[in-house]
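User: Quick sanity check before I run a bigger batch. Here is a single chain. Can you write out its predicted 3D structure?
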Amino acid sequence: MNPSFFSRLLACLLLCATVHAHALTAEQAMAMAAGETDDRVAAVQQAVAESGERTAAFLQALADDAVKIAGGKALIVRDDKGQDPVTGDEVPVPADAEDIINNNRMRGEIDTALAGLALFGKDEAQRLAAAKALTKEPDAARLPLLEKALAQESSEKIKVQLQLARAATLLGSEDAAQRIAAAQALSASATPDTRLLLNERASVEEDARVKSALQAALRAIDSQLAWGERLGVVFSGISLGSILLLVALGLAITYGLMGVINMAHGELMMVGAYATYVVQGAFQKFFPGAFDWYLVAAVPLAFIASALVGAVLERGVLRFLYGRPLETLLATWGISLVLMQLVRSIFGAQNVGVENPAWMSGGVQVLSNLTLPYNRLVIIGFAIAVLLGMAYLIGRTRLGLFVRGVTQNRPIASCMGVNTARIDTVAFALGSGIAGLAGCALSQVGNVGPDLGQSYIVDAFMVVVLGGVGQLAGAVYAALGLGILNKFLEGWAGAVLAKIAVLVLIIVFIQKRPQGIFAVKGRAAD
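Assistant: Done. Predicted structure follows.
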């Protein structure tokens, strides 16, 4: 016979023997399913080291609480149908089958084992996620698995992550030289998870040389993470500033240009937020397939709803109170209470949930410890768009000319043929509509409830007064300045003390410069 025939036959026999050796056995399945936690953990680690398709399926069943024990054997049970974990054949489920109970340690071990098995999948994203999971949960028993994955991995990005996982595992090695090498390797990975691993090891390390290497690695990581933390504070400040700017832009018209102290401005924001909630409910009920676009429809409707409420407020109450600031303040404060109670009667006193569309979920990973959420980025862009639109409307259009003319010199504007009563209504409705846009934006980053406006009304007045009454540029500087300053002070002194410190600084600034950052010049200042 041909000698090559014997060679091929021998190779096939060896392959079959190897597959058989790596196949899941009934004893292994039972060891992973029942017994003491330590024994079960050891069984899982051994099974993963000799993993096969059936092993992964059984581990997934364990994670899903779909394993029962009957007659000294482990069974996979899904939808009241039994399956033999070794052969995959369907088997009857005895009436006395007992459920498996997995404690937190066992669940963590199963999840990590599944991540280890995912290292050999075809999906690169899945392999990368598995390598990251093993980096967070290092275990010396998984070192052979990592070595095997490193040997056959083709993606350089995944190889780097696997090397970090291997280094994290070697931090617990008995060899001091290996621990030092692992610390040096991990210093290149500036992530909070790596810092946590090194800190945990440094707290129990007794070897002086290794401890020194760990501390050096921690210093290197801290210096790199510091930039991410600083940039994160700046971004949070800009995000808060954009929200304050949106809130204050409407008030810049009603108070800055018209001189009306509108204490119901926050409730006009609330109207816009609830309009967004109503549009969301309508899309969920009638247009579920287009739900991700509900926000596009909610923006104009929030503007219209708040603008209509503002127009009614101006025509019904405020037109009789111009030139009487105290009465205006008291009247709008009473109206704010009426609006809050009206919302409570219609929607209830509890907060309502407004979901982000899919395209606003998630974020951009800039650094290992800095992620920019999409919803915040969209709100920043939205605030810029509203600011530019408002600046164009006030500074470049006929309506803006009329508004500026009426606010600067009402008698002369009336003599020139301007319908001042109509302009007052339109201007107040415009400011109220912008407040509605702010409420629509706020619904994407926080809870929507009857008290929504109360959280921002004071900040809105501070922005307008600090920036200079009637000055859009001043409102931009004040909003961003207050947002960034507030976030920096929060990290240093806490939220409450930061708020107090900002208020004190504003009081001191107004004492020195009563007209704000940008003072009105010319006859308009008289």
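The chain is about 70% helix and 5% strand.

User: Great, the batch can go ahead then.
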